[in-house]
Amino acid sequence: MIYSLFRPLIFSLDAEAAHHAALDALQAAHALGFVSCCIKHPAAIPRTIMGLAFPNPVGLAAGLDKNGAYIDALAALGFGFIEIGTVTPRPQQGNPKPRLFRLPEARAIINRMGFNNGGVDALVENVKRSKYGGASGHSGILGINIGKNADTPMERAADDYLVCLRKVYGYASYVAANISSPNTKNLRQLQGESELDALLAQLKAEQEKLAELHGKYVPLALKIAPDLNGEQVRQIAVLLLRHRMDGVIATNTTLSREGVEHLPQHAEAGGLSGAPVRDKSTAVIRELAAALGGALPIIGVGGILNGADAVEKIQAGASLVQLYSGLIYRGPELVAESVKAIGRAALAPDKQCRASEDFG
Question: Is the model's pTM score more than 0.85?
């Protein structure tokens, strides 16, 4: 309700300026104690996924808080988990502005941000300062999403992922490797069979070393694109199983413009998110669920604008869901609405809802 009052003002600003203004306002409101007074947290619907105890199955997707600068304020909105990043080894500016566009008629967003972030060292310092995460142990589930610098040659891409994995391992509840952003040149090549096979082998080998070094096992997930055909999805599933990955996030933004062709900004380069990607994302989740056979959990993201959309992801095979674009259009109330809808669906006798499954 409160967000609906402020949304016209937020939407009157340039999209990227509005992004930063909204986060800064949330940070200030949280510091003053207003967020806890105004936001009613959803009832607990605990899930044990990847060996982690999630208080509810609705999380924040990577991309909103790239540097981990707003972790505590965002956690106050009632999320069951927060994912920050994508972070790269070295700071980078990302692609030239403007690079973020709202399409309100379609409840969609196009972005070509290009992994703009302050670098992994800056992110780690922010995590250390947060109450939700930090070196002393997490009070919540914090995922850290890692990627490669734009100027790192593709043949050296794995080096960037390994650098980030080593630096964030001690501060993350889980780590997600982003190989599916359309805004870093050639990044999606890493979804190819030989490239992905090599990358996952190196990541898992490093995970084993780090688990021994830190005395704890931090799950490792992979974030994939929605622009994959059935055979490609099944091929990725085989590699996820072969390398004993802990989870998969489906999906990132799409290069398709289906559903927004009539809008003036549809020709802007970048990844499309929001309502138009919902069906593509859900289709990939269904394909993954069939191919994986419950062997590892799926985190569903893409086009969740209401509670029914969240339930659809769960019923397609996801164990958890994440929000981003829907949060921009609906505001914080979407978190509680999605949790409540998933809880109701899990209790309905005619619904076969995978949210009740535990993945250790």
Answer: yes
